[in-house]
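Milestone 3.1: sequence recovery, worked example.
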């Protein structure tokens, strides 16, 4: 397997995580992503945009062909399923993205939408690592502002740093709130509860 084949990306995560729910062909996969708003999280505007993602995941051994559907008057449809390696990779990517700093903002957003695939304590652990990373970023920016102030640098030349600090403050507040709710048990889930939700919404529970 090529070293870069398992390189994560927000799009690969969304596709792979969605396939943990059940085997799907490209048409059904793209329709499901659209229905759940995932095409707003990552750039998957058309079914054609899924083909290179699926090809890379298959070459990496993360998905495999489950079956090929053949119906009269329709083109063949290849149905993909997640492999054991793919299932463990989803969990690894989720932990990585949930703990990353602002450089992985798109990946963090994608990972949040599939947080239920991890136990709640692992999500809290990852978010605490993200909180720490964000704190380091904020401290560095604050130090830069202080150095500029000492030099008499006008505020106009520091607007971008001040804006980034404001974004970090909002991010930190949101992450701290999630951590507190996860640690207290206010925000929790189980395999059974997810299965109930999936059944009520007409889907299938992901393989946790």
């Amino acid at each position: 397997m090529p070293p870069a084949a398992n390189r994560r990306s927000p799009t690969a995560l969304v596709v792979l995580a969605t396939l943990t729910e059940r085997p799907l062909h490209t048409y059904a996969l793209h329709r499901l992503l659209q229905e759940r708003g995932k095409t707003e999280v990552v750039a998957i505007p058309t079914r054609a945009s899924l083909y290179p993602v699926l090809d890379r995941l298959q070459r990496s051994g993360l998905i495999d062909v489950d079956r090929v559907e053949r119906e009269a008057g329709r083109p063949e449809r290849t149905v993909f399923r997640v492999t054991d390696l793919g299932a463990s990779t989803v969990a690894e990517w989720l932990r990585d993205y949930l703990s990353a700093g602002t450089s992985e903002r798109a990946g963090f957003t994608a990972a949040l939408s599939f947080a239920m695939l991890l136990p709640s304590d692992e999500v809290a652990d990852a978010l605490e690592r993200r909180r720490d990373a964000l704190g380091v970023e904020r401290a560095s920016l604050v130090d830069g502002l202080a150095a500029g102030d000492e030099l008499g640098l006008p505020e106009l030349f520091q607007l971008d740093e001040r804006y980034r600090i404001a974004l970090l403050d909002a991010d930190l507040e949101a992450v701290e709130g999630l951590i507190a709710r996860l640690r207290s048990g206010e925000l929790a889930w189980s395999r059974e509860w997810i299965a109930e939700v999936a059944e009520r919404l007409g889907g299938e529970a992901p393989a946790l």
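Residues 1-5 have pLDDT under 50 and may be disordered. Residues 10-109+196-200 form a domain with the Arc Repressor Mutant, subunit A fold (CATH 1.10.10.10).
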